Automatic annotation (TrEMBL):
Its EC number is 1.-.-.-. It comes from Paraburkholderia kururiensis. This is Sterol desaturase family protein. Keywords: Lipid metabolism, Membrane, Oxidoreductase, Transmembrane, Transmembrane helix. It is found in: Endomembrane system. Signal peptide: none annotated. The chain crosses the membrane at residues 7-25, 58-74, 81-100, 141-167. The lineage of its organism: Bacteria, Pseudomonadati, Pseudomonadota, Betaproteobacteria, Burkholderiales. It is a multi-pass membrane protein. Its main location: membrane. Residues 86-220 form the Fatty acid hydroxylase domain. GO terms for molecular function: oxidoreductase activity.
Length: 315
């Protein structure tokens, strides 16, 4: 089954590229000058996709034996292959994806990897390729261990993770409006546009992979409001098309914060608290610095970073 899924994704590659080409052409005719596509942004996304794929290939070599261990020694059920077990696998993995994705926005260690997907200020089908090679280091793979415990063999786990990811390609577009009743069941372009937005009312909402029922059940659903178009990107913009900077900037910032904070509690919070905690710490530090400068009559050199005060990082 693993082989089939990888083959399916390989077969889908021309479909993905064709859809990107169609979307760019379509938007150039229907919304000329909108700037939804830019060559530099799309090339950066493509580079990030290749880096992510390479890292994933290596990571599976290490991770599949971990799943195999849990499957062999800890599994609760022995499931017979068939439609019922496939549906269970699909639904369970999609729920775990929701948990992973929500945690990726609430735990800075995971956000350090996931921020890559959000750091472009454009949203189009090529944004789906914008992924981090650091996901295996962050520990994304650990979220699928419960599937092995439930009784799914490693090859099926890998396959369903890839299928879920492939589906999500299609929700990264501004060329499709709301989709009627599908909005109640599935993650759709409208629902995922909200997820990529940094507007106050949209931030930290709509974590769905394939099914949006989890957002509706657990209170994280917000509908796209035509009166408030999404503003894409993160609260502290990255301003680079360099895929290496996009990949490592938050890791560097996180470890720098942990190194300069006093006390283990604060250091652990720098790594594992919500990203907004560090943003508030930065803001408080900048205010203290400005006050110290004012007291000594030095003109503020922290004015640039002081603009962070009062903002909350895309958490
Ligand atoms: Zn996200
Ligand atoms: Zn996305």
């Amino acid at each position: 089954m693993r082989f089939d899924a990888e083959l399916l994704l390989l077969a889908m590659a021309p479909v993905f590229v064709g859809c990107i080409g169609w979307e760019a052409w379509h938007l150039s005719r229907t919304r000329p000058g909108s700037g939804i596509y830019s060559w530099r942004d799309t090339l950066c996304n493509a580079a990030l996709a290749l880096m992510h794929q390479a890292a994933d290939k290596v990571a599976w070599l290490f991770v599949i034996p971990v799943y195999a261990f849990f499957y062999a020694h800890v599994r609760l059920f022995t499931l017979e292959a068939g439609w019922a077990s496939f549906v269970l696998l699909f639904v369970a993995q999609d729920l775990l994806y929701y948990v992973f994705h929500r945690a990726s926005h609430r735990v800075r260690w995971l956000w350090a990897a996931h921020v890559v997907h959000h750091s472009s200020e454009r949203l189009n089908l090529s944004t789906a390729f914008r992924q981090s090679l650091m996901y295996p280091v962050a520990g994304m793979w650990a979220f699928w261990i419960p599937l092995a415990v439930l009784g799914f063999p490693p090859s099926q786990i890998v396959a369903i993770v890839l299928v879920n990811l492939a589906f999500q390609f299609f929700v990264h577009t501004q060329a499709v409006g709301k989709l009627g009743w599908l909005e109640y069941v599935f993650n759709t372009p409208s629902i995922h546009r909200v997820h990529h937005a940094r507007n106050d009312r949209y931030i930290d909402r709509n974590y769905a992979g394939v099914l949006v029922i989890w957002d509706r059940l657990f209170g994280s659903y917000v509908a796209e409001d035509p009166a408030e178009p999404p503003v894409y990107g993160i609260v502290e913009p990255l301003h680079t098309y360099n895929p290496l900077k996009a990949t490592f900037h938050e890791w560097a910032s996180m470890f720098a914060d942990a190194a300069r904070m006093k006390g283990w509690r604060n250091r652990l919070k720098a790594l594992f608290a919500p990203p907004a905690w560090a943003a508030q710490w930065h803001a408080a530090r900048d205010v203290a610095q400005e006050q110290a400068n004012a007291a000594t009559g030095i003109s503020s050199g922290a004015a640039g970073s002081g603009t962070k005060a009062g903002t909350v990082r895309n958490a």
